[in-house]
Design goal:
Length: 257
């Protein structure tokens, strides 16, 4: 009888967690849709802002093209959706935090919230670095490397796909200090070990730069060098972070209320 009661309680708890997860997910989706509806009238302006680095680099009289019939509508909509998600991201992260927080220990709560906030900030900094520093340099290089008799006319859909890929690459790259600090804080890897693999990390940074940037050495360095510097920043910050002390017996047995 006790086993059946415990099984019923476990199933009820699992279902309640699924319901809460669905609620949090729906709230996040609704938030993104609301922001998208607000931004939709400005979709063309948002796309123009995203395309500005390439438009400034194109030769006089050159323009971008749309090879798909629906591209002139769907591409700005895609860009606006990404912008809506970024604007709603703090609320989405708050929903994630509200869902996982009840099951965390006090020491874990002190770690998770700063990690979420710093991760979001570093990702946005990485995107900004790509937009304001990398794109003007890379697009200027490609526009002036065009052979004689060839006119550079980039399709807007391919351009947005390229830009989003670069945003993700630089955003993830700029998470390096956060990852290092978390690994050291949790005791997964020691600071001495991370320092010992520094040469491999530098080589890996240039390999990542070669894989995720245009095939010119300047663009590759613009990703590899910041990644190397971020690795060094992570090592510097990790010096002041120690592994958590052993949890108190009452904290091990029951999460903080």
């Amino acid at each position: 009888m006790n086993e059946s009661t415990e099984s019923a309680e476990t199933q009820e708890t699992f279902i309640s967690h699924l319901i809460e997860l669905r609620t949090r997910l729906m709230r996040s989706i609704v938030a993104v849709v609301i922001v998208l509806a607000i931004l939709f009238p400005f979709a063309k302006d948002i796309y123009e802002f995203l395309a500005r680095p390439l438009l400034r680099a194109l030769p006089q009289g050159a323009t971008m093209i749309a090879t798909d019939v629906t591209g002139t509508f769907l591409v700005p909509l895609k860009v606006t959706l990404v912008a809506a998600f970024l604007i709603a991201l703090p609320y989405v992260l708050w929903q994630v935090w509200a869902f996982v927080a009840p099951g965390l220990y006090r020491s874990e709560k002190r770690l998770v919230l700063p990690v979420l906030v710093s991760s979001c900030c570093f990702f946005l900094v990485g995107m900004s670095f790509a937009y304001f520093v990398v794109f003007p340099v890379a697009f200027h290089f490609f526009a002036h490397y065009t052979p004689v008799g060839v006119q550079m006319m980039t399709d807007i859909d391919k351009y947005v796909t390229f830009v989003l890929k670069m945003f993700i690459a630089f955003g993830v790259t700029f998470e390096t200090p956060v990852v290092i600090v978390v690994l050291v804080r949790l005791g997964v890897v020691s600071l001495a070990k991370l320092k010992s693999v520094r040469p491999y990390a530098i080589v890996g940074a240039f390999i990542i730069g070669a894989l995720f940037t245009p095939p010119d050495i300047l663009s590759q360095c613009l990703l590899a060098v910041p990644l190397w510097m971020l690795y060094e920043i992570g090592l510097l910050v990790a010096r002041f972070v120690s592994s958590p002390a052993a949890r108190a017996p009452d904290e091990e047995t029951e999460p903080a209320k």
